[in-house]
Amino acid sequence: MALGVDGRVFTYVAHVLAVASAVMVLVWCIYYRGGLAFEATNKSLIFNIHPVLMLIGFVILGSEAIISYKALPFSKEVKKLIHLVLHAIALVLGIVGIYAAFKFHNESGIANLYSLHSWIGLGTICLYAIQWVFGFVVFFFPGGTPSLRSGALPWHVVFGLFVYLLALATVQLGFLEKLTFLQNSGLDKYGPEAFLVNFNAIAVIFFGAFVVLATVSTPHVEDPNSYAAISDG
Hints:
78% of the residues lie in helices and 3% in strands. The chain has 233 residues and is mainly α. The chain has a two-stranded parallel ribbon. The model is unreliable at 221-233 (pLDDT under 50). It is found in: Membrane.
């Protein structure tokens, strides 16, 4: 059942938290970790691309794709296209971000796919891709029958939110894993960098919560195929 609160309130807060999280991850990777590069003698610069693209490109843009379908005052077809394109961009940037992590590991002589973060992360990006392909085929092109779309839409929304929550959990595991490695290598456990990473992790949790709240709140413009309509059904 939809919340009796205008979804714009949650959307505004989510956007503020998204900007804060994006700024914090950039400050961390550029100011504290030395910058970003696909080719570098200092292999850590290659790794730094990973958290930036996974948070800003994958999670934040993916969140915008979710919010856009609910909050934008456009026709259903326009919102569907924006939703599809934003998810596609998020998926591509997420794949590049994962590639950066593999590249860093391979060039640094570090094993791949040994941590829970990497396992869940790889599974999440695969599920995200499956969800996008399903949405494209059933709701965009060639498109299913009206009855098929009607029956598939609730499952598409629920599975999409499940994958989104997996992405948020993967981010938390990534922050924890990297910060633990840094602290074991001598980083001050109570220093500004450690606090920055932890504050960003908390910001991402609240950001995700407000994105989910925005999807289950009362929409500004009612749409028979909106999230609210699904929740009320």
